Structures are given as C-alpha cells and as structure tokens.
Amino acid sequence: MSTTSQGNQYINGAYRVGSGPTAERINPATGVVDSVIDYAGTGDVEDAVAAAAAAFTTWSRLTPGARSDFLLAFATELASRAGQLAALETAQTGKSTRMSTEFDVPGTIDNINFFAGAARNLQGQASGDYAGNSTSMIRREAIGVIGSIAPWNYPLQMAAWKILPAIAAGNTIVLKPSELTPATSLIFAEAATAAGIPDGVINIVTGSGREVGETLVRHPQVAMSSFTGSTAVGRRIMEMAAETGKRVHLELGGKAPLVVFADADVEAAAHGAVAGSTINAGQDCTAATRAYVHSSLFGKFTARVAELMDAMVVGDPTDPDTDMGSLISLAHRDKVASMVERARQSGANVLAGGLAPQLPGAFYRPTLITGAAQDSEIVQDEIFGPVLVALPFETDEQGIDLANDTPYGLAASAWTGNVNLAMRAAAQIQAGCVWINEHIPIVSEMPHGGYKASGFGKDMSSYSFEEYTNVKHVLISHDTDVHKAWQDTVFKQR
Ligand code: NAD
Known about the structure:
The structure is a single chain. This protein has two domains: about 260 residues, Aldehyde Dehydrogenase, Chain A, domain 1 (3-Layer(aba) Sandwich); about 180 residues, Aldehyde Dehydrogenase, Chain A, domain 2 (3-Layer(aba) Sandwich). The strands form six sheets. The chain has a seven-stranded mixed β-sheet, with helices on both faces. About 40% of the residues lie in helices and about 20% in strands. The protein has about 500 residues and is an alpha/beta fold. The site of nicotinamide-adenine-dinucleotide has 32 residues, from helix 7 and helix 8. Nicotinamide-adenine-dinucleotide binds next to helix 7 and helix 8. Keywords: Oxidoreductase. Its EC number is 1.2.1.8. It comes from Paeniglutamicibacter psychrophenolicus.
C-alpha cells in the first residue's frame, strides 16, 4: 500500500525518504504486511519546519481572497482523487469502503470548501473610538508555523481538521499523522501542491510519537502545537509545549453518553445508539459508549439494540455489503476484548457481541453490555471499540447526572420529545456538543471540541480561527496636540 516509492515524507512540495528507521505497515483487515514505510529523522523535521517558516511570510501576506482561491482549487483537485483516497483510507484503517467513500472523503472536501469561504470572513471584532481622540481596531494575524499531530481513526479528516483552519488563517504547517496511517495525509499534501498551493505551506513528517512527535512539539520555531489524540498524550504535549511557552490546542478522548428519557421514541433511540456506537467500529471520539435509559424503556431498548447489533455484517471492509470493517490493529482489538472480558468477570452481562469472529484481521463484533457498575472501568474509561454499555435510571436529574459522571466531556445525546427537557439536557450536560434525538452528525459550519478531560479548542467552523490567530489591538491617535491630556498623569506639560 506504499503511497510512493519516493518516500513517506512530504517536505517543501516534494516527497522524500525519511532518514529515520523503517517500519512494516500491516493491513488490519487482512493481517498482511502491505508496505514498509520510512520514518522521518530529526533532520527531516528540521527541514519541514524550515520550509514552513520560509513559506510563512508570503502565504500569510496573501489576501484572504487569494488564499481562498487556492483552497477552492485544492478541493477540486482532492475530489478528482476521491477513489484513490477512499481505497487507501480503507486499506490503512480497516474501515468499511462505505465509510471511506460516503463519509471520510466527502467530509474532507466539504471541510476544504468551508474554509475557502471562511478565509474571506476572518475579521477583527472591534472598531471604535474607545479612548477619546483615537480609533482602536483589531487585527487578526496568523501565528506562524503550526506543528500538528493527528490520530489514526479518521486519518484524512483529521489532517483536514488540523490543516485547513491553520492555513486558511495564513499559517503554515507541519503535520505528523499517526505512524499507523500516514498514506492519505501524504496524498493530501501532494494534492495541495498539484492545486498550486505554494511549497512549504503544508508539510508532512511521519513516524512515532516519541521521536518525530516530540521533536515537532519541542521545536522552538513551531509557534503552536495542535493535537488530536488520547488524553494521556495530550497532557504530555502540554508539558512539552510549556518548555517553549507555545500555544496548545488539544482535541482529546471521549466517553459520550446517550440519554434516553421516559417519553423517547425507543425505536429511534435504538437505531441512534447502534449507529452511534458502531460508526468507524466505535473508534470515534464522539461515539455513543454509555446509554442511560429510563427504567420503563430499558428492556425494550436493550432487546432492540442487541437485535440490530446481531444483524450487522462484520467482515471484509471492501465488500459493499459490509457494515463494519476491522479495528485498527490486532493489539487494539485485544485491548477492547480484554476490557469486555474484565467487565464480564465483574458480573456484567454481554447481550450482544463480545467476541471476535474467526477472521484473520482485527475484527470485533458490535457489543452491548448491561449490569456494569457506574464506577467500573467499562463505564468510565475510553474503550475506542464497538462497545455500548446500557444502564437504567429513574429520574430525569439522575439521567443527566450519570451522563456527566466521567472525566470526559466531548459529546452527548439526549432523546426526548419534551422541548423543556431537551433544553435542560442541552444546558446541563457538560460536553462540547449535545445532540437532541440524534447522535454523530457533524458539519463543517459548527465547532467540534471538548469540555473537561476531552481537551479545549475547537476544530471546524469559524470558531477554530480563535485557535489559529493572534488578536492584535491597533490604536491610531488623531489627537494633534504634542502633549496629550492623559500624559499629565505621568508628567505635567511644560
Ligand atoms: P494517541 O494519543 O496514541 O496518538 C495520537 C498521535 O499522537 C499519534 O500521531 C501519535 O504518534 C502521537 N503521539 C503519541 N505519543 C506522543 C508523544 N509523546 N509526543 C508527541 N506525539 C505523540 O491516540 P490514537 O490512539 O492515535 O487515537 C485515538 C485517540 O484519539 C482516542 O483517545 C480518541 O478519543 C482521540 N481522538 C479525539 C478526537 C477529538 O476530536 N477530540 C478525534 C479523534 C480521536
């Protein structure tokens, strides 16, 4: 599945072979080694940062309209590679071709088109004569070279979410994709060059977090570290960024609740729970992982979810009939399986799934668990697999309290036909997104980001410009007096 014989680094508009170690890439759905990839060495990271720094002056001084034109051309170029990108995304992650084709690739193109428009609407908020004989205005300015680090679950979309707001605002970037999934980020950067985006604006270095990731975060010329990944690594990024006092943007783990109130449409909630917990084989930071269901609906809800999960087709991701492909690796599949096993041994019931089918790849069946304790590992910790835990509640307040009872706060859903209750849930659930009678839909126009241990900062939407720009106050005096009145406070006019 090697993307190119010219290497797995993309620096200053060209591929190169990294000077770091090499590693075998295993297709997770087949268990077969499909390529050997080179990792970046320290010199490659240095060169990538230098290329981004060199490109910054010209790129940041372009008019928003000019940057927008480049992004529109980029979207068109990427769309012409949709088939190649979808096939590579499935080969490197094991996700179904349906997901790659209908979600990952179009979502990425839409994101580029959104930021092509948003670039032209980036503006300062204030203009006024706040200090008497002077006018204040706000300039929003690009920060510099952004060092970004992305996870493996949606490699292409995560590259877009990190790169687009940064470059639309005039920054340049060095992105390190996950070492498990570098292929589509490389094609992404190559397509940017083909669309005319100047060399050095987007650079990709690949390799492990410990070596390449840490070198990038610590680099003194990197003005900001933007990261999507686990909460544990996010904390480490923050520590390292403190060494040079740089800005951080952290999109971290999740443990999204789905709260089904007593008046909910139980059939719709069951469908939402199955789609929400098995999307991308559950390897989605906003996936539904904890279903809190009013006790009057609990039996009906769990029976229907188990029935729907049992009917899901798990297997070859390239087969159009497959609902769910493989997980990212055998090691990750085993981690998911062992969490389910520990829950079972602590007395929980496995109503659906709970097993890996007899296939050579990293497959695991959609799984429904009941009877777990609220403070148990399976309810509190991120599993990042197709596992939903259902627990009953009695009062509306209890449902909301349980939803808030984990360290995470990325996303949540509430299911009810009662508008008062829906609004109360939206206000009281501590998460960056609350869906009502839905779970999962994301749109480029709306922000994505966490509360609590799920991090801070927003991806997508114009809110992401808050992350990738500096706000500058410019004050222009129109007082023609040599000695201004306020200066009397410091020294009297003589
Ligand atoms: P991870 O934290 O293990 O790795 C993410 C990235 O960080 C990878 O590129 C990895 O190489 C790099 N990395 C690892 N250690 C590093 C270090 N010491 N210094 C610098 N970089 C380092 O996460 P993952 O397993 O790739 O992805 C799954 C996690 O990502 C889950 O926790 C999931 O919830 C989270 N995620 C969050 C969002 C969001 O928007 N909040 C989106 C997708 C995934």
